[in-house]
Each structure stands twice: as C-alpha cells, then as structure tokens.
Amino acid sequence: MTEPFDFLPEVPEDLYKSRSIILAIVLVGMFMAVLDVQIVAIALPTIMHSLDASIGQIQWIATGYVITVLATVLLFGSLSQSVGSGRLFKAGLLLFTISSFGCGIAASIPELILFRVLQAIGASMLMSVCIAIIMQVFPKEERGRAMGCYTAVIALGLIIGPAAGGFIVDIIGWPYIFLVNVPVGIVLLVTTTRYLAIDREPLKFRHLDYAGAILLIGLMATLAIALNALSNPPIRLDAFGLWSALCFVFLVAFIAREKAVDNPILPITIFRNRSFVLPAISLILYLTATFLLLTIQPFYFEYVMNLRPSHIGLIALILPLSMMVAAPFFGWLYDRYRSSQYPATGIIIMGVAFLGVGAAFSQLNFTLIIGLFIIAGIARSIYQGPNSIEIMGSLPAALQGIGSSLITALQYLGIMFGISLATFLMTAQLTGLGMSNLTQGSPTMLAAVFGNCMYVAGLICIAGAVCEFAVSFYGE
After folding, report:
1. pLDDT of residue 141
2. Which of the residues 189, 272, 276, 473 could staple to 394 if both were Cys, CB 3.0 to 4.6 A apart?
C-alpha cells in the first residue's frame, strides 16, 4: 500500500509555521462538538422538570443531536470540496455558537429541540472537515502525532462531559451547559479569522445534487431512527422493521442516483477500493465494540457489583483516561516507526482485553476488570489515529473533504450500532431467562449476561483486526 498522503503537495511555509495554532483551533472546535453529545445527558431530568416536558420530548434533545449529525455530515463533506474546509469550519463554528446561545435562552421544549438541531448542524459542519484540515497543515512525518492529539481530545470530551454537566447544572443551572459554548466560540471565531487561512483557491461553486442530498439525509436519518428503536426498550420490532424498510428504499434510490449523475455527493466508486473499505469496516466494528462496553458497564457495576453511582462514574473514566494519556505517545511512535499493521495491532489487543473482561465480569474479578480496562484504553490509542490516517490515505486528494466527513459518519454509525447491540443483547438474554428487567436477576446470573455481551464485543474487535490485516494482504 502506498504511503498515506504521498500524493499531497508540500505544506506551505506559512501554514506550517501556524500548524500548532491551527491544530489547537480544530481540537477546541472538535472538543466542543463532542462534549455536547455527553454534557446534555446529565441535565435531561432537570430540563424535563424545568420546561414541563414529557420523557418522549426530552429524549429528542439527546438523540436529535446524534441523528442530525449522522444525517448531514456526509453532505457537508461533499460541500467542503466546493467551499473549502476552512470556510466550512468557520461557518459551522458560527452556527454552533449562535445555536448554543439559542439553546441557553430557550423557553420551551420545541424551541430547545429546534436550536439543538441547529447546534448539531453546526457541529456536523465542524466535524466533517477536522481531519482534512489536520492532514492539510501537517507534513506526513508529523500526522501521527497530530492525530494522536485528536484522539486524546475525543477521549477528553468523553471524560469531562458527564462530570462537567453535573457541576454546571448544580451550581449555575442547565442553560449554562449550552451558554458555556458562547464565549469559547467567540474567541475561536476571532482566532480562525487570523490563522485558519487554509483555503488558497477561490470558491468553486458547483451544482449540488439536491435530489441526492435529500436521499442521503433520508438514508442516514432512517438508519439512525431504526437503530434508536433497538436501543430503547421495550424494543418494538415493528417500528424497527418499518424504519429499516424505509432505510433500504432510500439506500437503493441513493445508489441509483449517485451512479446516474456526473457530480455525485458520495462517489460510489470509493467502495470498490479495498484499502478504504476494509479500514472503514474495521472502524465501525471498533466503535460498535467500544460502545457496547460503555453502554453495559454502568449496569454491571450497579446491579452486579452493587457500587454507588459516584464510584461507577470514576470507573467510567478509566478507559477514556488511559486512551487520552497514551494517544500522543503512540501517535509519535507511529510517526517514527510507521507500519501498516499498527491499527491491526491496536484492535486485536483491544479484542483480547475485551474477551478477558467478559471472563472477569462473569467471575466478579474487580481487579482484573480494572487492569483490562487500562489495557483496552491504551489499545484504543494505538488503533484510532492510525486507522483514520489509513482511511484518508486511501482516497485521492480530490476526495479529502468527503473522506474526513466519512470518518465522522462511520464513527457515529459505530456508536449507534454499539448502543443498539448492547440493549438488544441484554434484553434478549433477560427474556430468555424469564426476566423483564435487571432487578429480577441475581448478581451471579446477571454477571453471566454481561460477560456474554463482552465476549461478543471481543469477537467484534477481532473481526475488525481481520479487516486491518486484509488491507496489507490484498493491497490496492
């Protein structure tokens, strides 16, 4: 396989001198977008009481954000090829900042949901180009370290989100979980005006395939809603079947449309490239396994280990904290000793660790669980940055914008797959044991249920490793 990004021109001198500032801008923007996925969860009960909302309405504050990002991120990746990555980042940052203010002053649930969707559109614009910008301003020998920092920031958002949300709600009130974005966004906007001058070409307005855009949004939205139907027990298979059928119709129509137009939003030909497809499948599997664990672990520690919520929160920090600490080092190591087997090594270590967690869950071995969590977090830092570089490096220069957004879409797909699979596995096993909820099972019985879930997660990681190894085996 060719060296990732060998085909890109040398980084201009002025961009190279400003690369650290540009990286900081991108990372802060990405951090805000990731944080707002997590920070809201802790405030939902308070918002529900404050705005006199129903459970169904309040759920859309959280799920609406994820569904909107998933439905629009590929569209913005395609749009970035016309308007430029820097311009799209600035526009997304402006919309994210304004809509965050709107969320903070919302006086009703419909207003809050509307501004939350607009906030997600801004976040989608930001996230669709973050990786493309990093690749554009860093030379190839420094991209591993830069992507290590990117990986660490994602982990930091996962760490800080719930704790920050609880602190803000308790001290100054729920509106400020949104309003805190405003001053940060303003400072970032001023900084981008001076330093984020990466769009050297004038605007290249091209005809946007509006029919394809509508079909793409419909495809991603129905897929997200179908997966959401599986992640909210009691699972309604009729709703899942309906949304899955609609998703399939949109998929067939979108593929037919993209094959028929000269300027497609998502070139279908990239899916013939094994060097892109295999790492992409691996990324989905990796995040599916990760969020399978993240979804079930609070239930395991509460219903099996009988731990307090505060202790469970501390345990939840172990995986992302290990990842955050290790990611910059392993990014540097990747730059120094570049190898196509790097992502495969990370995900297979993670798979073995998850299989071990399955056994440790079943045996109620707390010490072993913590040790394996640390190993899995380190393995994630080995895998994620190099995998993203591998995906981007498999695409031609003209598709870097769509490649960056594809990675974000794949990540969100994996997250939703993981949450849905975790819920499905728990529900199916409990039903098979004649139980309707976790409170009816003994700790020993529940330990086996959660252990089985982690065995599945481990096997999913190993399947992801097979995809990574196959990239080197098949080549282009």
Report:
1. 77
2. 276
Torsion, Cα 151 320 175 185, to 10 degrees, reads -20
Lookup result for tokens 């990324």: 283
Q: Model confidence over 345-391: pLDDT tens digits?
A: 999 999 999 999 999 999 999 999 999 999 999 999 889 888 887 88
Please state at what angle helix 400-432 crosses helix 85-105, rounded to 10 degrees: 50
Domain 1-197: CATH superfamily, name plus number = MFS general substrate transporter like domains (1.20.1250.20)
Residue 405's Cβ-count burial label (10 Å; 0-12, 13-18, 19+) is buried
Distance between CA atoms of residues 275 and 474, nearest Å: 8
Domain 270-476 in the same topology as domain 1-197: yes
pLDDT for the residue numbered 410: 84
Q: How far is CA 462 from CA 238, 277, 351, in A?
A: 32, 17, 5
DSSP annotation of 206 reads: -
Amino acid identity at 154: I
Q: What is the pLDDT of residues 24-77, one digit of tens each?
A: 888 888 888 888 876 776 677 788 778 887 655 776 787 788 888 887 888 888
Domain 270-476 has CATH 3.40.50.10960: no
Sequence ranges of the domains in the chain: 1-197, 210-264, 270-476
Taking alpha carbons only, the member of 418, 417, 437, 439 closest to residue 427 is: 437
Query: Tokens for 421?
Result: 């699979």
How far is 91 from 85, CA to CA, in rounded Å? 10
Nearest alpha carbon to residue 156 among 38, 309, 289, 297: 38
- Contacts of 114-117 with CB under 8 Å at 24 or more apart are 116/60, 116/61, 116/64, 116/65, 117/64, 117/65, 117/68
Q: How far apart are CA 382 and CA 153, in angstroms?
A: 15
